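STRUCTURE:
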């Protein structure tokens, strides 16, 4: 009986030692997040503000490209031309603040156009009339948009821990503003994209694919619809 108790005590002590010595799990790990977005591999931790800001930019880039692709797949030529014209004019504005405001207006207009299209009762019938390449391109755009939303939501959740840790660390005050700005940016993206994502759910079965179920999935890259450049 004594030997049995000693054996149990040794097992407990060994288990405790292994637990204390094990590497700390990173609360802000995205696996190959940056790699799947075209920027190399990066595992980020809850104390890595630079990696957080880079991840937010990567999500924003994927969201922008997929939104643009959805509009090109679904909108009429007149709407596409108008959006591209407004975006070009906005990018030519010299003042950075004014340029940013103009680009935000363009993005709101683009999302409004997309929302209107997705509310159209004839949308599914129009998708059925697309050829195989067009359906593949549309499916990829919808997949990447939803994937960007999943990643954006994960960044929103993890930003709370990061900002809390930085706020209590005087050495990190100089970069806290950038992190808060990035967190606000991704929050706005998720908010504006959520309605669109809800309406995209019907597109996946219409084009014969499933949407992403994890933020760690890779974006889809396809052959572009004739007349458009392929993009992830």
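SEQUENCE:
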């Amino acid at each position: 009986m004594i030997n049995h108790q000693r054996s149990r005590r040794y097992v407990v002590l060994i288990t405790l030692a292994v637990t204390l010595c094990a590497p700390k799990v990173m609360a802000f790990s995205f696996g190959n997040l940056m790699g799947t977005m075209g920027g190399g591999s990066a595992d980020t931790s809850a104390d890595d503000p630079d990696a957080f800001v880079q991840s937010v930019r990567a999500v924003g880039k994927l969201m922008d490209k997929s939104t643009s692709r959805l509009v090109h797949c679904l909108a009429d030529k007149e709407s596409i031309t108008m959006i591209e014209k407004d975006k070009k004019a906005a990018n030519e504005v010299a003042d950075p603040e004014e340029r940013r405001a103009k680009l935000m207006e363009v993005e709101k207009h683009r999302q409004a156009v997309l929302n209107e299209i997705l509310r159209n009762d004839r949308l599914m019938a129009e998708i059925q009339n697309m050829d195989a390449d067009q359906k593949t391109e549309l499916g990829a755009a919808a997949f990447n948009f939803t994937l960007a939303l999943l990643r954006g939501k994960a960044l929103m959740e993890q930003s709370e821990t990061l900002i809390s840790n930085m706020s209590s660390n005087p050495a990190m005050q100089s970069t806290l503003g950038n992190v808060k700005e990035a967190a606000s940016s991704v929050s706005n993206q998720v908010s504006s994209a959520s309605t669109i994502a809800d309406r995209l759910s019907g597109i996946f079965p219409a084009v014969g694919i499933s949407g992403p179920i994890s933020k760690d999935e890779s974006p889809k890259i396809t052959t572009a619809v004739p007349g458009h450049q392929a993009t992830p």
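REMARK: The chain has a mean pLDDT of 79.
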